[in-house]
């Protein structure tokens, strides 16, 4: 089962997606309400401006229409000041002339009666005339008081169009946000879930590895206290206790190193280091280990110095891990060879041993913490942290692993560094 299908990751991603969708929905509602409010304000301002322009088109002596459809004004020509020639498709501006006694007479026969409470209206305001929503304004024009009004149907139509578009887009937008948030949520949750799982596995494996030496030490201590023993028995028991104590110490040191490395914000600073010198020093340090197992530990240095930019501390530990592993897995009387060189523009260190090798199916897991190959677990006696430490160092220094069979019959581990790491 992949991490993307773990129930925990799925639940976390869905929760993140729902929260993100809710936030976007709230923002979308606020934005939609703001757009409607701004568009209503702008359209209302435009309508009020048209009412003001209508006053300028009304002649001071404008008269109501006569029975034959013409105005009673001078010349008898047809006159419709409510029609704006610049906006032929807009609703007409309705115009009323208000007499001194408050009687309102429309200048257009199609205009409805003006309510009495609107005959002395001044500034533009909203009103309802004959069941229609209007914007209305009034002022003195010549000797008469004139009231003008225009329907707000265009504003209503614009509001409906905006709301319809808003509702039409909302499902697609929120659906896309939800799906995108699920994908992003999974990508964010997967590393967290994986790290949590690794932490639990690390704790469980560490507890298991520590339990064995502790059990051995406890058993020998209990037996030693149960009755008197001869000197030989005590020596044998203390030898086993010492061996298990050293095993615990190595395990704890490796665990502390990995914990510090994981917690470090960045690896130690890089500096130019001579790869051949580091390998020679490591070989010298492990010479005694190889000698006790009757191994031939040989180093093949490069013809010329090979300098890379990396942390000398990390690279030295990496070489130590690889040489130590090679010595552990090589049979007594075998050989361990360390080679330093250049190939295809990359500096490399190769360690060959005569051990059982790494089976093909094991090569994807050998860098897992506490993992030991079935073919070498009993032989190594380690906790399976050496290659995990080596892998952390290789990644931190920009290196690249190479794993394959060795000409000596065992495994060949190669670490190479590219041009960006070379001196």
Describe what this molecule looks like in 3D.
It is elongated, with a radius of gyration of 45 Å. It has 8 helices and 12 strands. The strands form 3 sheets. Strands 2-1-5-4-3 form a 5-stranded antiparallel beta sheet, with helices on one face. A 5-stranded mixed beta sheet has the order 7-9-10-12-11. Helix 3 (231-263) packs parallel to helix 8 (386-396) and helix 4 crosses helix 6. The protein starts with 6 loop residues before the first helix and ends in a 6-residue tail after the last strand. 49% of the residues lie in helices and 17% in strands. The chain is α+β, with helices and mostly antiparallel strands and 423 residues long. It has a domain at 271-421: Histidine kinase-like ATPase, C-terminal domain (Heat Shock Protein 90, 2-Layer Sandwich). Strand 1 (94-98) and strand 2 form a beta hairpin. Residues 1-5, 68-79 and 374-380 have low confidence and may be disordered.
């Amino acid at each position: 089962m992949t991490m993307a299908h773990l129930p925990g990751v799925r639940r976390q991603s869905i929760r993140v997606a729902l929260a993100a969708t809710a936030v976007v929905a709230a923002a979308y509602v606020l934005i939609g309400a703001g757009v409607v409010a701004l568009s209503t304000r702008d359209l209302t301002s435009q309508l009020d401006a048209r009412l003001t322009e209508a006053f300028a088109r009304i002649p001071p002596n404008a008269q109501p229409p006569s029975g034959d459809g013409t105005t009673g004004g001078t010349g008898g020509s047809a006159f419709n000041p409510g029609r704006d020639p610049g906006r032929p498709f807009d609703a007409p501006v309705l115009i009323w002339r208000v007499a001194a006694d408050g009687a309102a007479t429309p200048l257009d026969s199609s205009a409805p009666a003006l309510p009495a409470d609107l005959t002395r209206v001044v500034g533009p305001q909203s009103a309802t005339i004959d069941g229609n929503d209007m914007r209305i304004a009034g002022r003195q024009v010549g000797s008469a008081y004139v009231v003008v009004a225009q329907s707000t149907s265009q504003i209503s139509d614009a509001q409906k169009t905006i709301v319809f578009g808003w509702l039409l887009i909302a499902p697609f937008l929120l659906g896309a946000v939800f799906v995108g948030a699920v994908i992003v949520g999974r990508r964010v949750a997967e590393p967290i879930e994986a790290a949590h799982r690794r932490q639990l596995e690390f704790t469980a494996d560490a507890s298991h590895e520590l339990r064995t030496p502790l059990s051995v030490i406890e058993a020998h201590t209990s037996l030693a206290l149960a009755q008197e023993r001869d000197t030989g028995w005590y020596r044998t028991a203390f030898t086993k206790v010492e061996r298990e104590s050293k095993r615990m110490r190595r395990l704890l040191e490796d665990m502390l190193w990995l914990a510090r490395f994981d917690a470090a914000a960045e690896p130690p600073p890089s500096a130019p280091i001579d790869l051949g010198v580091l390998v020679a020093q490591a070989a010298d340090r492990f010479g005694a280990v190889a000698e006790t197992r009757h191994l031939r530990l040989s180093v093949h240095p490069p013809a010329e110095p090979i300098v890379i930019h990396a942390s000398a501390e990390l690279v030295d530990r990496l070489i130590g891990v690889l040489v130590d592993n090679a010595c552990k897995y090589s049979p007594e009387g075998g050989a361990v060879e360390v080679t330093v060189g250049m190939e295809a523009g990359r500096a490399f260190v190769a360690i060959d041993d005569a051990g059982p090798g790494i089976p093909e199916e094991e090569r994807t897991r050998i860098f897992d913490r506490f993992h030991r190959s079935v073919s070498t677990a009993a032989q190594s006696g380690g906790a399976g942290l050496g290659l995990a430490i080596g892998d952390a160092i290789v990644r931190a220094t920009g290196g690249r692993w190479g794993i394959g069979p060795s000409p000596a019959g065992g495994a060949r581990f190669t670490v190479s560094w590219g041009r960006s790491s070379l001196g």
